[in-house]
Amino acid sequence: MTNSSIGDPLVGHALEGRYEITSRLARGGMATVYRAVDRRLDRTVAVKIMHEGLGDDEAFVTNFDREARAAAHLSHPNIVSVFDQGNDFGRPFIVMELVEGSTLRRLVSREAPLTPLRALDLMDPVLSALAAAHDSGLIHRDVKPENVLISRRGQLKVADFGLARAVTSQSAAATQGLLIGTVSYLPPELVEHGYADTRSDVYSAGIMLFEMLTGRKPHTGDSPIQVAYAHVHKDVPKPSSWVDTDWRRSLDGIPPYLDALVGAATSRDPDRRPSDARAFLDCVRRARKALSSGVMHDPHLTLVLADPNAADDTEPVDIEYTPTRRAMLAVAGLGATASASTASASTGSSATASGSVGSGSAHAGARPGDLGGTVLSPPRPNGTSEGSSLRALEDDPGARDQDEHAEPIALPVDGVGAAGPDRPGDGTDSDRTGTEESDRTDWADSGAYEIARATRGRRARRALVAALLVLVVALGAVGTWWLVDGRYVAAPVVTTMTQPQASAAVKAAGLEFATTEEYSETVPVGAVIATVPGPGEDIARGATLTAVLSKGPERYAVPAVVGKPLDEARQALDANHLAVGTVTEHWSETVAQGTVVSAATQEGTSVKPGTPVDLVVSKGREPITVKNWYNRNSDDAIAALAAQGLKVVTTSRTSDQVAAGKVLGQTPSEGTLYRGDKVTVAISQGPEKVTVPDVKGKSVKDAEAAMAAAGFRTTTQPVEVNYLGLGFVARSSAEPGTQVAKGSTITLFLV
Fold first, then answer.
1. Contacts 24+ apart (CB under 8 A), 636-640
2. Tens digit of pLDDT for each residue in 284-342?
3. Are 211 and 266 in contact (CB under 8 A)?
4. At what angle do helices 277-292 and 198-214 cross, to 10 degrees?
5. Which residues on adjacent β-strands are paired with residue 662?
6. 380: Cβ–Cβ under 8 A, 6 or more apart, which residues?
7. 631: phi then psi, degrees, rounded to nearest 5
8. What is the DSSP letter of 486?
9. Nearest 10 degrees: CA dihedral of 184, 188, 194, 199?
10. Does the record bear Transferase in its keywords (predicted)?
11. Domains 3-96 and 556-618 share a fold
């Protein structure tokens, strides 16, 4: 039995007569986990028992029963199996597989930050478990490292699906207004609206991945409300910005596409996250595949993982041959070098046109490094690029075959059409000879005139587009300034101020003022402990700054527990945020068994929350074993019985078998009594005594009759001197009038 099990009343108890509790493993906010033995199947299991009070809520019990049954239907190697559920005297419980080992929390605490590849390896079984649950219509709602168990064989298993809610048309609103979850991993929508779906689990899993990569949680604060505020109002930073290892120099660095994946999974907008754990798992496996291949920079993969819900039904294609995606990269400033095979309209022969997207000249190509250090190789004759790291076709033969058999795409750039074999390839003014008319005639002969005219039209449109882009960029800059800086002010420093002082300072900064209260051991009552957002952090103009005011030290009065049964005393202490300390059992002649006799801390004393209160509990009346004192000295018997706390009553009577002064009998003769019970002791007076009659001068016959009537036996004997033989009694061996034991033999002397 562990130290934590000492004094736990459930240890040794058999839930519903089947699951015998052997020890306590852990205690949480809603339940306590015990090790137990299933008597029916003779196996060791884990039992999670909800805290007292939760079983009084019929709605909670109904939901608990339904959700435990749903969790029991989950069968997956990475999910802790749920065997049974029940309700033992108002205590709902779940019976689960017992996983001997450790938790992901312990691993992260000891070893994080982990290498990206190892972090993704650990995420795979976690997301596989969540994906199985999501496929079955369940969400977990409390994904965190503490709920990921690691067996001694290294297998990861996700626990606590018994607290999941079935995803229905109403989805998963917070139960009874309570947020079920851990604040460090709570998704914003659960904080704001009390609503959770599969994407909420994705968010929590994304925070787990961030913590494994960096060794830290993305949002911290002095109080839970500050952490929750950060989840709602702040983006999760890039993991790479929190570690020292540079992905450009080490394979242990965090590549951009992994930053993008974490950013998508932890987006404050649920619509931007992977739709469920299955989609998140697919993204993790794509990132892990790239990492395993040594690819540290893949802009296409970065774009895909940054927006996992965008249509991307195939493996990444070569970005050179995708005009739309190449344009996106150009607008984003990535400047990819473009290459394409162009078919000649007149001869059917081919040539290569090269240029830079968004450039004003056919030779204003992108420099090496415009794609983050990735240089695209010239196209091979079949239209693919050999050296590009922007595609993963080499990892997917089916996708590669599809790309190699695709039709080549003609990309005219800055007036360059499909040049025939007899025409200059660059189309610049320095290459032109003759007049414009001759140029037109020559181009017309080859069909190139129409292409040139279309090119001039495109130039005009490009000029208009360029002007519009400048306008958009300018407006964007203004909008960006307003969104990023202009509409925000720094939260004023009001900590340690009184409420009136803080209110004045906040309103002077153009903000609304609201308060909430928390206990503090150090900050005086009414003073500000902290603010949300914190001092100096950005807050929108006119928004509300919440100040956390001190309620002073948190203290609770010790309730009246003396005279109450132990269970009621425990409930009273729990209600006052206190705990039962050491429970000592004593015999009591006045207090019923199981009732509190005394408490170490006096009733009404103010103590800190969680303070243990030692209790003395009655074992009931102390049993006394009574021995049989028959034929033993009565004085010794009376003294011993009185010393045991028994009430001794004595009687006496004659006895032919027991000598006088000894115990002739007792009631009860032996057994178990209690202090104050009565014991009757009978003391022997010895044999009964009678008076010897006077028979002197009587005949032998009359004398014997008188003695017999008195209870004596007689014998006769002649006198020693002067015997005459007359047959009369001269005297007896016992003097007449004396007391002699009844039945004694008296000798009659005759003359």
1. 637/663, 637/666, 637/681, 638/681
2. 999 999 999 899 999 899 999 999 887 554 444 333 323 333 333 333 333 333 333 33
3. no
4. 30
5. 633
6. 386
7. 65, 20
8. I
9. -100
10. yes
11. no
Paired strand residues for 149: 103, 157
CATH architecture, range 689-750: 2-Layer Sandwich (3.30)
What is the distance between the terminal CA atoms of the chain, rounded to a whole angstrom? 95
- Better pLDDT: 360 or 204: 204
Q: Which CATH number fits domain 489-550: 3.30.10.20, 3.40.1110.10, 3.40.720.10, 3.90.1600.10?
A: 3.30.10.20
Helix (H, G, I), strand (E, B) or coil at 728: strand
CB atoms within 10 A of CB 744: 16
Are the C-beta atoms of residues 726 and 707 closer than 8 Å to each other?
A: no
The CATH class of the 103-306 domain is mainly alpha
In this structure, CATH architecture of domain 556-618: 2-Layer Sandwich (3.30)
To the nearest 5 percent, what fractions of the chain are helix, strand and coil? 35, 25, 40
CA 286 remoteness from chain centre: 30
Known catalytic residue at 312: no
In what helix (H) or strand (E) does residue 72 lie, and over which residues does it extend? helix 58-72
CB of 217 within 8 A of CB of 226?
no
Give the pLDDT of residue 75. 87
3-state secondary structure of 675: coil
CA distance 402 to 215: 42
Q: Which amino acid is at 131?
A: A
- Give the pair of three-digit tokens for residue 634: 């009565």
Count each helix (H run) and each strand (E run) in the chain, helices first: 17, 35
What is the residue extent of each domain of the chain?
Answer: 3-96, 103-306, 319-342+350-374+384-432, 489-550, 556-618, 623-684, 689-750
- Is the pLDDT reported for residue 541 higher than 80? yes
Domain 623-684 CATH assignment equals 3.20.20.140? no
Strands 647-653 and 678-684: parallel
The Cα–Cα gap between 99 and 131 comes to: 21
Provide the CATH number for the domain formed by 3-96 in this structure. 3.30.200.20
Residue 744 pLDDT more than 90? no
- pTM (whole model) above 0.70: no
Cα distance between residue 536 and residue 532, in whole Å: 11
Asked if 417 and 448 touch (Cβ cutoff 8 Å), the reply is yes
Return the HEC string of 265-278: HCCCCHHHCCCCHH
Distance between CA atoms of residues 390 and 290, nearest Å = 11
Q: 142, 259, 318, 370: which is the annotated catalytic residue? A: 142
Interval 8-32: pLDDT, tens: 778 889 998 899 999 988 877 677 8
**What are 615's strand-pairing partners?**
583, 599
* CA–CA distance, 476 with 468 (Å, rounded to integer): 12
**Amino acid at site 333:** G
In this prediction, residues 714-738 reach a mean pLDDT of 87
Among the listed residues 62, 38, 34, 61, the one whose alpha carbon sits nearest the alpha carbon of residue 48 = 34
**Nearest to residue 544, comparing CAs of 518, 505, 515?**
515
* Residue 618 near residue 609, CB atoms below 8 Å: no
